[in-house]
Design goal:
This protein is an alpha/beta fold. It contains 14 helices and six strands. The chain has helices spanning 3-17, 21-33, 44-47, 55-64, 71-79, 83-93, 111-120, 143-160, 184-187, 205-216, 244-254, 271-279, 299-308, 322-332; strands spanning 125-128, 165-173, 192-196, 223-224, 257-261, 284-287. Strands 1-2-3-4-5-6 form a six-stranded parallel beta sheet. The protein is globular, with a radius of gyration of 20 Å.
């Protein structure tokens, strides 16, 4: 076993157990750091020199560097029930990711690097979803900039060859009246539209419900992004209040997927709403909301949550082949 694999598996099993998001993220951070480590046996003291590596992760790295399965991982595996294996299989079955950002908005890397990272993970497709104009703090895309980005995506795909496609998309703000923050004609040209609320997240339940219902019923919308808007780390942010039963019923009826956002600070939707969406018959998109290439590896955390409530691969559009994804999207539109 290699150190990175051991650290990723531990992060997955911690997510499965519902551990602190700080602990989950610590193992992902250490897994990113070991790419700079020489191959072969490494003692824990040397591993501690890596940025973001603490005593526990250093010991895992040291043990895995010899090819052994680290004792911490063995402990977690022994305590995990069979469903955890299902979650790992769901992660292995993933074909794509519907939500990632580049430096065209608030991501930190060029879209070419995001595409290369997705392909290196074994994805067959990934959707570039930079922000829409109203989110100026995130350098959202005006119609003119989005037009230019469509050309840039086409150029990337021309270089990628067969086996992978970067899809055009957007994370479109849901405005207060439920309309979408981008020209309708442009939305119709995109492969996938993720719609999310980023403003007035503490609205009363009634207007928030109306806002979400209008968005998920919009034929341009494919995925409802981080539906509660909550943040569970740092100073945090409470989740938005809305009629979840009505919103998830509308998602199921319209064929709009509910996002299982994999960012450790979000875990959105929370478990009770995730169960409610599953019971309503919704489809789901296990999305990383990645703002850097290494964050694409967070998808396994969302798969752990999906498996924990009994979702199978067919309910996750992020396991679908590209043809099915796009055909289903065309049928909805």
């Amino acid at each position: 076993m290699e150190p990175e694999e051991a650290l990723r598996r531990i992060a997955f099993l911690l997510e499965w157990r519902g551990a602190s998001p700080y602990r989950v993220r610590a193992f992902h951070t250490a897994a990113d750091a070991v790419r700079d480590l020489r191959r072969g046996p490494v003692d824990a003291a040397e591993a501690r020199q890596l940025r973001g590596v603490g005593p526990v992760t250093a010991e895992v790295i040291s043990q895995a560097s010899t090819g052994a399965v680290p004792s911490y991982l063995l402990h977690l595996q022994a305590e995990a029930d069979p469903g955890a294996r299902v979650g790992w299989d769901l992660a292995a079955a993933s074909t794509g990711d519907c939500h990632l950002h580049s430096d065209w908005s608030d991501g930190g890397s060029p879209l070419e690097e995001m595409a290369d990272a997705a392909r290196a993970l074994g994805h067959h497709w990934a959707v570039l979803t930079d922000h829409s104009p109203r989110l100026t703090i995130a350098h959202g895309l005006s119609p003119e900039r989005l037009e230019r980005q469509l050309l840039a995506v086409a150029a990337v795909n021309a270089k990628q060859g067969s086996g992978f496609r970067l899809l055009t998309g957007i994370e479109c703000d849901i405005l207060e009246d439920g309309s979408l923050d981008q020209d309708e004609s442009l939305l119709g040209r995109l492969d996938i539209v993720v719609a999310s609320v980023h403003s007035k997240l503490r609205s009363e339940p009634e207007p928030m419900t109306a806002r979400l219902l209008a968005a998920v019923r919009n034929p341009h919308v494919d995925v409802l992004g981080h539906c509660t808007g909550r943040i569970i780390t740092g100073r945090g942010r409470p989740q938005s209040r809305f009629d979840a039963e009505a919103v998830f019923a509308a998602c199921a009826e319209a064929g709009t997927a509910v996002e299982i956002n994999c960012r450790p600070e979000r875990r959105d939707p929370p478990d009770d709403l995730l169960l409610q969406a599953a019971a309503a018959g919704c489809r789901f998109a296990v999305d990383t909301d990645a703002h850097a290439p290494e964050q694409l590896r967070w998808q396994s955390s969302g798969c752990a949550r999906a498996a924990r409530i009994g979702l199978d691969a067919d309910r996750l559009i992020t396991t679908w082949p590209l043809g099915r994804l796009l055909t289903t999207r065309t049928g909805r539109s």
